[in-house]
């Protein structure tokens, strides 16, 4: 076009006449281009923006995990989070997306969506499939990276990558199929067809990651020095609370893409979903702070930060279904629950979870899923909870979903880590753990040239 207009100027016919000469060519190109109505274009743009925000959650998780663990393992944490995303994205493209959104045949999953089934970007359907893959791939990466924090500071990097790959390719997509298969026009999956509600993934994403993390922490075992000879838990403080706090703020910000973007439609519902998401996070922060303050006499920062995440995880299943008042109640209760869960897992079960991932994502994900059966409010979604006069059937279905996701994720996670441990070993040597994984696993130093002093 530029060349034609230049010739037009030389011939003295001007740019307007030049454009007229191009009109037939432009019209023909427009006919061949995929047609998108304004609403469809808006939906695509909104879903893409939501996916971009969810991708930013990887940065949040990396900072939270780094901040709540020791400086000698910071580079290892970063590597795991980066590889969760990079490797998981390829595997979800090749295998996971097809398993999750392909059609079901007699209980077996068959799909033309492996490698996106050669999605044709010249059609409206093809463009939507590509956009939807991008959005869902971010969710897959989130579920996989939850595992990283629970087995931090003592796990072989190579063995971790094997586990992360299996989560992204098989464990997460298969159970996701049960609830979300209808999102791309599939049969719905057996849980979804029963009426199970998990709008943005308290169970599908967070509990799956949390229960796999629980299995991993059990198989790998506690860090050196975590428990004394009498089995009493010792605190191993993280090296950078401001970093952890920044990670929480990033997660809070990106969570609006997680929950609001799950509409995949740019309509008015995204406003109240954002309100519910924000209020639950606020209430979770307060619930955790007041609870730990009451129990210990001090408002502990790390527990307070986990309270914010607990509120976010708790509201994720019902952000489309509950009222703002309901979201405050759910978030506040999740904040209380996460404190008791962290203490119970750490001190009673004696499972070492350095960042509280099992409690935040597994326990509070299950809790938030159950709360849909109670707090789903008329006028806010498609269901009515028990507290608003709805049937108890919804609560039973939510309970079933919680049990199923625990059994699947914990069971498959335990089997997976046991096999990887037997074949390759899950844990580094005692000497490597004492030196730190940055040096022994990566020959790197996250804080080269700085001396990190202990306050003990």
TrEMBL record:
InterPro entries: Ammonium/urea_transptr, Ammonium_transpt, Ammonium_transpt_CS, NH4_transpt_AmtB-like_dom
Protein name, per record: Ammonium transporter
Transmembrane segments: 45-64, 85-110, 130-152, 159-180, 200-220, 241-258, 270-294, 303-320, 326-345, 357-376, 396-417
GO biological process: ammonium homeostasis
Alphabetized Pfam families for the sequence: Ammonium_transp (PF00909)
Protein topology in the membrane: Multi-pass membrane protein
Domain Ammonium transporter AmtB-like stretches: 46-447
PANTHER family: AMMONIUM TRANSPORTER, AMMONIUM TRANSPORTER SLL0108-RELATED
GO cellular component, one term: plasma membrane
Family note: Belongs to the ammonia transporter channel (TC 1.A.11.2) family.
GO MF annotation list: ammonium channel activity
Originating species: Desulfovibrio legallii
Signal peptide location: 1-29
Subcellular location: Cell membrane; Membrane
Alphabetical keyword list: Ammonia transport, Membrane, Signal, Transmembrane, Transmembrane helix, Transport
Primary localisation category: membrane
């Amino acid at each position: 076009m530029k060349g034609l207009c230049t010739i037009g100027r030389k011939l003295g016919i001007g740019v307007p006449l030049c454009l007229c000469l191009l009109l037939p060519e432009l019209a023909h190109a427009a006919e061949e281009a995929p047609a998108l109505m304004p609403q469809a274009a808006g939906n695509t743009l909104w879903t893409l923006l939501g996916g971009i925000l969810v991708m930013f959650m990887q940065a949040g998780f990396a900072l939270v995990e780094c901040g709540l663990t020791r400086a000698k393992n910071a580079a290892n944490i970063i590597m795991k989070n980066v590889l969760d995303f990079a490797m998981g994205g390829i595997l979800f493209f090749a295998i996971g997306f097809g398993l999750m959104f392909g059609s079901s045949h007699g209980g077996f999953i068959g799909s033309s969506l492996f490698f996106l089934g050669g999605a044709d970007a010249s059609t409206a359907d093809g463009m939507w499939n590509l956009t939807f893959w991008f959005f869902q791939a971010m969710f897959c990466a989130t579920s996989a990276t939850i595992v990283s924090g629970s087995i931090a500071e003592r796990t072989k990097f190579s063995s971790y990558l094997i586990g992360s790959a299996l989560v992204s390719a098989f464990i997460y997509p298969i159970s996701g199929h049960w609830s979300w298969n209808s999102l791309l026009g599939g049969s719905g999956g057996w849980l979804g067809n029963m009426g199970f509600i998990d709008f943005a993934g308290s169970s599908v994403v967070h509990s799956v990651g949390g229960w796999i993390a629980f299995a991993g922490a059990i198989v790998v075992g506690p860090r050196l020095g975590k428990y004394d000879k009498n089995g009493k838990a010792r605190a191993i403080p993280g090296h950078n609370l401001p970093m952890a706090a920044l990670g929480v703020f990033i997660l809070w910000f990106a969570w609006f893409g997680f929950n609001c973007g799950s509409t995949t439609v740019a309509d008015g519902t995204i406003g109240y979903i954002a309100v519910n998401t924000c209020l639950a996070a606020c209430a979770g922060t307060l619930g955790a702070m007041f609870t730990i303050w009451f129990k210990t006499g001090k408002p502990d920062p790390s527990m307070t930060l986990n309270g914010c995440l607990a509120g976010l995880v708790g509201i994720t299943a019902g952000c489309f279904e509950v009222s703002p008042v309901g979201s405050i109640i759910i978030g506040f209760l999740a904040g209380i629950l996460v404190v008791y869960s962290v203490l119970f897992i750490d001190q009673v079960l004696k499972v070492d979870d350095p960042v509280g991932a099992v409690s935040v994502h597994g326990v509070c994900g299950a809790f938030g899923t159950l709360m849909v059966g109670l707090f789903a409010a008329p006028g806010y979604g498609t269901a009515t909870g028990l507290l608003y006069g709805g049937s108890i059937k919804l609560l039973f279905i939510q309970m079933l979903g919680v049990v199923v996701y625990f059994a699947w994720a914990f069971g498959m996670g335990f089997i997976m880590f046991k096999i990887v441990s037997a074949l390759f070993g899950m844990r580094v040597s005692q000497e490597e753990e004492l030196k730190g994984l940055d040096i022994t696993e990566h020959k790197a130093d996250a804080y080269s040239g700085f001396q990190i002093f202990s306050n003990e």
